[in-house]
Amino acid sequence: MTGPARGEATASLPSSRKVLRKVSFQGGNDMKREKGFSLLELLIVVAIILIIATIAIPSLIRSRQVAHETSAVANLKTLNTAQISYTAVSGGTYGTMTDLIGNALIDSRFTGTVSGYSYTFDLATNLRDFTVHGTAVTANEGRYDYSTAPDYVIRYTTVVARAPIGQAGAPVQQ
Question: Which residues, at least 6 apart from 46, have a Cβ–Cβ distance to it below 8 Å?
Answer without folding.
Answer: none
